[in-house]
């Protein structure tokens, strides 16, 4: 009986070990990629988030040579921040793949991770269904999935965790497989808008994004050598709207320290933070307008009127594209109200490129809120209308001579 008991005990311990992954990379390292995917003073919060994330992982023992930070360098430079670089989708994907030869500008630093390593990736940016908007180009969900699968096939990690803060960020991870050792959480589902927070009267801009602030402040105040990723997820979820999780949820039983710190190092002492009574939550696409409203130096309403007029003008352009492509009221209403499953990735890429070229440049303060209308192009391609018809209609509608109400 005693022998049987020991055998059963050994079996149960083995099952527990398999159910709860080891916390430390065996003979491996911890690597981190941090991306602020925007530029401009009104997007100050994205770079502030990235700097905060860097301070967390650096404070918890990950050396700078194992941290890659991608930030646009149009804010005040800080020599303590490691390696600001040109923030493009191609550079980001090259960083993940460890392809230094394909990076342009910046330090050329890429992930040099291997089969025993843990990789933590944090991205804060603007988003829309199926894409993240970088300063000059877009990172599409299909390309991100291809890069993650490449990393898995080439044994670039043992376990990996992604945190993504952007509107529609859930759409970036819907195709994430649960058998490649990757766990991801996102600020929103596939269609919801993210929130900015902590408006600063002195700087006239927002200092954080709500999902990001929640996970980072949690990492600041908790002993992350004891707290699990699932606990952190539930804490963030309790304070936000539709935070989502994807991939291998078994990894969520691991400690936060296993990815946001050096699991072989002594954990840093938790901080004490003062509670914020009113975080001033503002929908991300309304941030430029809210800044204009709050700016005490804005003595007249001309800038506000211009912003609203251009927003409405471009909205009508997009609706006209949908009207002409669908041709029928019933189909028009479906495109406006449903969430399609995108299979025509090239159709969507080309439609977005055409819309940006002919209708809008949303990387400026005035136009960034029109990312929320891209779900209509997403749906048009999801309905499998002829791509050539969609592209031609966008060009026709957007190049019509009319009076833009600036």
From TrEMBL:
<dbReference type="Pfam" id="PF20985">
    <property type="entry name" value="Legum_prodom"/>
</dbReference>
<feature type="signal peptide">
    <location>
        <begin position="1"/>
        <end position="19"/>
    </location>
</feature>
<dbReference type="Pfam" id="PF01650">
    <property type="entry name" value="Peptidase_C13"/>
</dbReference>
<comment type="similarity">
    <text>Belongs to the peptidase C13 family.</text>
</comment>
<feature type="domain" description="Legumain prodomain">
    <location>
        <begin position="304"/>
        <end position="398"/>
    </location>
</feature>
<dbReference type="InterPro" id="IPR046427">
    <property type="entry name" value="Legumain_prodom_sf"/>
</dbReference>
<protein>
    <submittedName>
        <fullName>Legumain</fullName>
    </submittedName>
</protein>
<keyword id="KW-0732">Signal</keyword>
<dbReference type="InterPro" id="IPR001096">
    <property type="entry name" value="Peptidase_C13"/>
</dbReference>
<dbReference type="InterPro" id="IPR048501">
    <property type="entry name" value="Legum_prodom"/>
</dbReference>
């Amino acid at each position: 009986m005693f022998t049987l008991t020991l055998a059963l005990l050994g079996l149960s311990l083995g099952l527990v070990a398999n159910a709860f992954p080891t916390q430390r990379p065996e003979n491996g390292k911890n690597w981190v990629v941090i991306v602020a995917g925007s530029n401009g003073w009104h997007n100050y919060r994205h770079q502030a988030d990235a700097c905060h994330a860097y301070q967390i992982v650096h404070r918890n023992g990950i050396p700078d040579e194992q941290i890659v930070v991608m930030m646009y360098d149009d804010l005040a430079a800080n020599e303590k921040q490691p390696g600001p670089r040109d923030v493009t989708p191609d550079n980001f994907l090259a960083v993940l793949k460890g392809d230094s030869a394909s990076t342009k500008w910046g330090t050329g630093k890429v992930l040099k991770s291997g089969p025993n390593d843990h990789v933590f990736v944090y991205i804060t940016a603007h988003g829309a269904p199926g894409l993240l908007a970088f300063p000059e180009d877009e990172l599409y969900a299909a390309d991100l999935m291809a890069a993650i699968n490449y990393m898995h096939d080439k044994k670039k990690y043992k376990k990996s965790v992604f945190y993504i803060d952007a509107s529609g960020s859930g759409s970036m991870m819907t195709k994430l497989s649960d058998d490649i050792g990757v766990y991801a959480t996102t600020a929103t589902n596939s269609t919801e808008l993210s929130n900015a927070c902590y408006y600063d009267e002195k700087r006239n801009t927002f200092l954080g994004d709500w999902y990001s602030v929640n996970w980072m402040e949690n990492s600041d105040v908790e002993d992350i050598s004891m707290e699990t990723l699932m606990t952190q997820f539930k804490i963030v979820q309790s304070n936000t709207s539709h935070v989502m999780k994807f991939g291998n949820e078994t990894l969520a039983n691991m400690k936060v320290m296993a990815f946001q710190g050096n699991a072989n190092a002594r954990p840093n002492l938790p901080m004490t933070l003062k509670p914020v009574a009113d975080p001033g939550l503002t929908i991300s696409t309304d941030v430029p307008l809210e800044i204009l409203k709050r700016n005490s130096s804005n003595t007249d309403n001309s800038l506000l009127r211009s912003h609203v007029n251009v927003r409405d003008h471009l909205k009508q352009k997009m609706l006209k594209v949908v009207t002409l492509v669908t041709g029928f009221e019933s189909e028009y209403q479906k495109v406006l109200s449903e969430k399609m499953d995108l299979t025509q990735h090239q159709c969507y890429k080309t439609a977005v490129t055409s819309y940006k070229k002919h209708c809008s440049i949303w990387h400026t303060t005035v136009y960034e809120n029109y990312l929320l209308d891209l779900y209509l192009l997403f749906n048009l391609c999801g309905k499998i209308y002829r791509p050539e018809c969609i592209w031609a209609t966008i060009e026709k509608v957007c190049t019509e001579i009319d009076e833009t109400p600036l």
